[in-house]
């Protein structure tokens, strides 16, 4: 296929995805469900395993660009909605559940997988891969369903901060499985976590302050008229800088969003029309990214692999949702006396832990490395994605209403 024909084919694919997303958005609004649920279902229907209309290879450059930038931009948007006042109240819970909580979830899940019959090392890999929550899934849900501030911001912050811990756990287990790594070292793992998290926070904070300075300062804000473009450049720059220094790119863009969303705390301010224009731009961009991420994710579901492993997978994921997550939340949040979480708040956080892009990416990396048991891990990871998004996401509003946590 010539370059021009390939370009036309790619444009057609992107056009189909966007059109599908627009239709799903309209239907989702009428049904009062999060739009990502319909995006995922539409992607499954249009993918090569079904209608064959949309085919963007998971390992292809286009897919990786869309997933990486899309997840980064959604994280930035989620960070921009957080407020320092709330974070000061719940930061202990966020730190504990993003670190120790990942290990608790992974250990329980691995134990369940071993009980079901999976080899121990495969079970440990599975537990590590799906132990972290996914920001690309959770941020859009909390943008559409208005939950009590401290609950929503805790869950979104956890999803941003725990990707580093999930990746470290995955590659620690991977080193043991393949025999290419040294024996587990708590000290080395803690150093890696502190490096990835700390440097990511620093880079995001620096990028956020610089963006505020150049767009909202009375003297130095010469880029005020180009604030939307500055946000795009800063998201890309923060992610690539952090990733290039072997730290968490996702954490960097999340912290960048927090800085930009709390610019008033640093003495920077925008006029109402400028803020409205920025909000419109970010809203449109995040919608486009949501459509691409979840339609493409659905189109890449391997039904043959799911059929092969679905009995064990469904059982593992059901216990993962109903046992591993609640135990993690009640242990980690319940120990935070400062936040004083109520039973209803912890129950809601126990149910809200959708799996999505980050675990799918980790599972895909294991497939690419030809790790023993990687196909099993990949299949059950997709089962977790499907079950959590199709079961938990649509019931978020209902549960929040029943628990009295919904804010109109």
Give a quick summary of the entry:
The chain is 76% helix and 0% strand. It has 408 residues and is an all-alpha fold.
Helix-and-strand structural type = mainly alpha
Spans of at least 5 consecutive residues whose pLDDT stays below 50 are none
CATH class assignment of the largest domain: Mainly Alpha
- Range of helix content: over 70%
- What is the number of helical segments per DSSP (H or I, 4+ residues)? 16
Number of strands: 0
Under CATH, the topology of the largest domain is which? Na+/H+ antiporter like fold
CATH architectural label of the largest domain: Up-down Bundle
Give Rg in angstroms.
21 Å
Biggest sheet record: none
Distance between the termini: 53 Å
Mean of the pLDDT scores? 86
Provide the domain count: 2
Q: Which properties best describe this structure?
A:
408 residues; 2 domains; 16 helices; 0% strand
SSE layout:
Layout: H1 3-31, H2 35-46, H3 61-80, H4 84-116, H5 120-129, H6 135-144, H7 149-178, H8 186-216, H9 227-244, H10 249-261, H11 272-299, H12 303-332, H13 343-351, H14 357-368, H15 374-392, H16 396-402
Helix pairs in contact: 1-2, 1-11, 2-11, 3-6, 3-9, 3-10, 3-11, 4-5, 4-7, 4-12, 5-7, 5-15, 6-7, 7-8, 8-9, 8-10, 9-10, 12-13, 12-15, 14-15
Description of the structure:
The protein has 408 residues and is mainly alpha-helical. The protein contains 16 helices and no strands. The protein has helices at 3-31, 35-46, 61-80, 84-116, 120-129, 135-144, 149-178, 186-216, 227-244, 249-261, 272-299, 303-332, 343-351, 357-368, 374-392, 396-402. Helix 1 crosses helix 2 and helix 12 (303-332) packs antiparallel against helix 13. The N and C termini lie far apart (53 Å). The mean pLDDT is 86.
């Amino acid at each position: 296929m010539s370059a021009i024909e390939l370009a036309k084919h790619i444009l057609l694919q992107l056009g189909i995805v966007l059109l599908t997303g627009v239709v799903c958005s309209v239907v989702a609004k009428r049904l009062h469900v999060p739009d990502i649920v319909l995006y995922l279902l539409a992607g499954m229907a249009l993918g090569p395993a079904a209608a064959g209309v949309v085919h963007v290879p998971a390992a292809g450059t286009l897919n990786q660009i869309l997933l990486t930038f899309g997840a980064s931009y959604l994280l930035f948007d989620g960070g921009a909605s957080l407020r320092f006042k709330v974070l000061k109240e719940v930061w202990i819970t966020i730190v504990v559940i993003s670190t120790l909580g990942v290990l608790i979830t992974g250990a329980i899940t691995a134990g369940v997988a071993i009980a079901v019959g999976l080899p121990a090392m495969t079970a440990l890999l599975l537990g590590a891969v799906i132990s972290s929550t996914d920001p690309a899934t959770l941020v859009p849900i909390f943008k559409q369903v208005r939950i009590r501030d401290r609950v929503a911001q805790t869950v979104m912050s956890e999803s941003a901060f725990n990707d580093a811990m999930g990746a470290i756990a995955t590659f620690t287990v991977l080193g043991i499985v393949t025999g290419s790594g040294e024996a587990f070292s708590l000290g080395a793992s803690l150093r890696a976590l502190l490096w990835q998290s700390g440097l990511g926070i620093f880079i995001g904070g620096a990028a956020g302050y610089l963006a505020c300075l150049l767009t909202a300062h009375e003297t130095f804000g010469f880029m005020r008229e180009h604030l939307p473009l500055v946000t795009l450049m800063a998201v890309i720059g923060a992610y690539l800088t952090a990733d290039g220094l072997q730290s968490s790119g996702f954490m960097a863009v999340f912290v960048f969003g927090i800085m930009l969303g709390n610019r008033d705390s640093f003495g920077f301010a925008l006029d109402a029309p400028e803020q409205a224009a920025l909000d419109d731009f970010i809203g449109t961009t995040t919608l486009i990214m949501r459509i691409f991420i979840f339609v493409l994710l659905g189109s890449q579901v391997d039904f043959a692999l799911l059929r092969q492993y679905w009995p064990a997978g469904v059982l593992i994921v059901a216990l993962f949702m109903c046992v591993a997550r609640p135990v993690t939340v009640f242990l980690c949040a319940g120990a935070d006396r400062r936040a004083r979480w109520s039973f209803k708040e912890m129950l809601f956080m126990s149910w809200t832990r959708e799996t999505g892009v980050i675990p799918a990416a980790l599972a895909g990396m294991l497939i690419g490395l030809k790790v023993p048991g990687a196909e099993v891990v990949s299949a059950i990871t997709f089962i977790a994605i499907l079950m959590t998004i199709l079961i938990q996401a649509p019931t978020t509003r209902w549960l929040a209403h029943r628990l009295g946590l919904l804010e109109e």
